[in-house]
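Bumping with the actual sequence this time:
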Amino acid sequence: MAQNILIAFDDSENAMRAVEFVARSFKNDCKITLYHVLQDTAALCELQSPELTEYFIAQQGNFCMLEAQKKKLIESGMKQATSLLVEAGFSDGSIKTKIEVKKTGVARDILAASHSGFDIVVMGRRGLSGIKEFFLGSVSQKVFNAAKDVTVVIVN
């Protein structure tokens, strides 16, 4: 039976390692969705408030251009990941990409997406030091700890 796999994807090496893991570890009849939670910064680009500092107002356009560039990087990375999966034998039609604006938090949004018919969530482990990870946590750690109805695979 083909599995439905959600790969939590960003533009990091860890995310690409997660894609490589799926490419070599799962049968190529699986359905795969590359999923990215985009930070909700569009609202900041349109923010026009007298309380804003002069510096923010002066830099607002640059900030918005950076966010647009970040989305392009994600889309480019997803194309690269799709190519890698196709080269591994997955059909192009079985691979989807999905970018959604953050609603409640990156980890919670990944978990919410996983409840729409996915069997497995695969994600890269963030390379934080033990102390930083203990105090700050990471998205992968939060997803792993909060997952109840879906298998989570963390790729190192």
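The tokens above came from a reply further down the thread. The radius of gyration is 17 Å.
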